[in-house]
Amino acid sequence: MENFLCWIEAHPGLASWLQALFSVVAIAASGFVPMWLASRDRKKRKQHQRERVAILIDRLLTMFKSLAVTVSDPLRAEMFKHERTVEDWRQEDLIISSTPADDSFSDDIFLLIALRTSSAVGLNIAESLAAADPYYVDHSQIRIVGEQIDKLELLRRTERMLRTGIFADGTKAHRGSIS
After folding, report:
1. How many CA atoms lie within 13 A of 179 on its CB side?
2. For 2, phi and psi rounded to 5 degrees?
3. What domain range includes position 148?
4. How far apart are the C-alpha atoms of 25 and 20, rounded to whole Å?
């Protein structure tokens, strides 16, 4: 180490060159580090958002399956009025509506739009069940609930494919086709 310091003192212009070199490295690092941190933060937010969407899809699917039983069974529809089911639908709709569509959602914004639509449909049906004659079976509601269940099953598969990068047939997505 002592020899190295002596060698540096013997070459007077070397210190200024090293200072210039490390100044350039420091300037480059001051630009790169914030970009790297922002990128890392964006990836974490995107992962958190996708996990949240997966949970919302599963909860909404479970609620629609319960609603399917209620819509088709007049006795269950009568019990529906006395349960907190409509309030559960309102809460779920509020949670889904308040999910922000920020830059972490850019790749799969259609999932959020479909979830918001489905939760509004479910809330509408739940409110109409609570207000209607319990012994009247509205067959259009049975069809609509069935369609929403099919839609949510498809959303679940799509969300898993986006999260894992593996298509339904088992093939992997190419780099850049799914972010």
Report:
1. 14
2. -65, -40
3. 48-164
4. 9
